[in-house]
Design goal:
single chain, alpha+beta, four-stranded antiparallel sheet, 4 strands, 17% helix, elongated
Amino acid sequence: METVLATGNHLLVQLKGHHPKLLAAVRMLCQSRAHAEQSYTVDLGRRNRIEQRTVRLWPLPSGSGTEPWHDHFQTVIEVQRQTEVFHPCHRCFEPRQAPRPIT
């Protein structure tokens, strides 16, 4: 993080469940405020699938995080993706099933 800040660059960080306090704070912020920007894209027929993406942005006010190092975060970016795959037996597109966990 220090190198990124020292060189004036930006860093994209994926927020996952192993930071439950930060995840809860970001979710609450996004639920309580309207997003600032939204974009929708769709790729039709590439690799026998249809992919739809919705991207929403929320600027973060200073002090939004739960730890001092969170103050460097400037924007929340939410990406939702829906994929449909062509099923040759049924001759139609069907929602892609999530992979099953290995047990």
